[in-house]
Amino acid sequence: MNKTPERHHYIPQFLLKGFASRITKKAHLVYRFARGAEPHEVNTINLAVARNFHDGLSADLEQRISFRESNYVHALEHLRGKNATSEDIGLIAECVFNLMVRTKHLRDGITIFGNEIVGLFDLPEAQRVLRNRALKNFIDAQPEIVAILSRYPKSRHQRILLTEMTKRGFDLNGVCRGIWDKIKASIDMSKWAKDAQLKVLDKDGLPEARRDSFLSYRWYIDSQPAGTFVLGDVGPLARVPDEVKLTLPYGCGTPLSVYLPISSAELLVGTAYPEREVIAADEVNRASAELSRDFFVASKNTSREQAYLQYIGARATLLSKPDMVKGFKEVLDEFERGKQN
């Protein structure tokens, strides 16, 4: 018997409900501002939802995510009441990281990157990655080369390898192209993106790469009048060194601050700065629109919110060129792991 498809929210309802325009006995309604559509009210139960979005690795992942979210809600309530414990702060930091990872924005961005990665083949940076991989594969396949290399300084190894490859009839450019053709034929980028996302969500707590920074932040809620903030489909935003605008929290090292609108009147802030920041709501809202891929939600539908509609997707590209090359290496690693399994 086929399993009935389940509806999974990739932005949690507890967050969406904070932007309610109306609340009835049966629904929390928010205004959805989507690219190419007129703003309209929608029930949060039908917003930011996809069939079986969290299916794949663990049968109970959706339930575990829901359980985590109930803890996040309590921790945020304690922060509102200014009686948050260190345990609450840990949960709030985990909540922000969870929302960085779980969005459809991130999964789509990785998939798009993967589908466009063929264009990286001609980049010098990518050529170096493939060249190094091809040379490593040549050494692995020709054990006697190790003995030859051991007689010469490391600075001469690449030249010697190229000479040995030519002697044995190997064309380095052809080998690189062959590696890349095999990768394109064997990796389903949409599946790779989904599996990578679910692997992170499957683990409890903060990863080591974020633990020290997120737990050392000062966390607080910037409270403003109702209707001040909007929420984009990207979730959290970040302020990073050498960037003027708020940006995506991925691939940027350690952010100076992270921001998450948790209701139309509240902005959750985690910052490395010793003092509370003065941040304009317009800066947050415009960044939410520019960085979002598909939509943002708000509790009002006025000329103020409608003005942000023109910016949707203006800066939705997930990865910069250096990050794309890093991702290129990860695709190669995934391909090598697949060959070994």
Structure description:
With 341 residues, the protein is an alpha+beta fold. The chain has a domain at 112-192 and 322-340. It has 13 helices and 11 strands. The protein has helices at 13-16, 61-80, 86-101, 104-116, 124-141, 144-149, 157-167, 172-186, 189-201, 208-216, 281-291, 303-309, 321-340, and strands at 7-9, 22-23, 28-34, 40-43, 49-51, 218-223, 231-232, 237-239, 257-263, 266-271, 295-298. The strands form 3 sheets. Strands 2, 3, 4, 7 and 11 form a 5-stranded antiparallel beta sheet that branches. The protein has a 4-stranded antiparallel beta sheet with strand order 6-10-9-8, sandwiched between helices. The longest helix has 20 residues, at 61-80. The relative contact order is 0.15.
Q: What percentage of amino acids are in beta strands?
A: 5-15%
Q: What fraction, in percent, of the residue positions are helical?
A: 40-55%
The span between the termini is 30 Å
Mean pLDDT: 85
Oligomer: single chain
Low-confidence stretches: none
The number of E-state strands comes to 11
Outline: elongated
Could you give a short account of the major beta sheet? 5 strands, antiparallel
Instruction: Please write the string of helix (H) and strand (E) elements.
Output: EHEEEEHHHHHHHHHEEEEEHEHH
Helix count? 13
Structural class category: alpha+beta
Query: Rg to the nearest angstrom?
Result: 24 Å
